[in-house]
Amino acid sequence: LGPSGFPFEQFLAEVFRAIHTIKGNCGFFGFSKLEALTHAGEDLLGRLREGKIALTPAMTTCLLALVDAIRRILACIDSSRTEGTHDDADLVRSLDCLRRSCRSLGC
User: Fold this and answer.
1) Rounded to an integer, what distance in angstroms lies between the CA atom of residue 10 and that of residue 85?
2) Residue 8 neighbours by CB distance under 10 Å
3) How many angstroms separate the first and last alpha carbons of the chain?
4) pTM
5) Cα(30)–Cα(94) distance, rounded to whole angstroms?
6) Alpha-carbon distance 76 to 20, whole Å?
7) pLDDT 10s digit of each residue in the chain, 107 long?
8) What would you report as the CA-atom Rg of the chain, rounded to the nearest whole angstrom?
9) Is 70 in contact with 54 (CB distance < 8 Å)?
10) What ranges in the chain are assigned the alpha helix state H?
11) CA distance to 24, 39, 58, 74, 75, per residue, from 78 (Å)
């Protein structure tokens, strides 16, 4: 079961849809950093939803880092209308590595 007693598959679908919606709006508003980050997260979540890979502790850690990064960027957008200066390239690489089921990463 996922949080709040949802079946895990339903919880995963809800998270996927939220990330997908954010990603889709990024292109419209020109937020390329947030778009790259959410795209990497969406790809990993998609593989999980399809059952092509199994959730691991490393994935959980990176997905939580993804949520933190999205919140940080959205706060910057809210306060300054910019995505901020933080570089999330390492997180994007880690999410992509996990999507490909790599075993060693620094997330």
Assistant:
1) 34
2) 12
3) 25
4) 0.84
5) 24
6) 20
7) 455 666 888 888 999 999 999 999 998 899 999 999 999 999 999 999 988 888 999 999 999 999 999 999 999 999 999 999 999 999 999 999 999 875 444 44
8) 14
9) no
10) 8-29, 32-49, 57-80, 89-99
11) 18, 21, 30, 6, 5
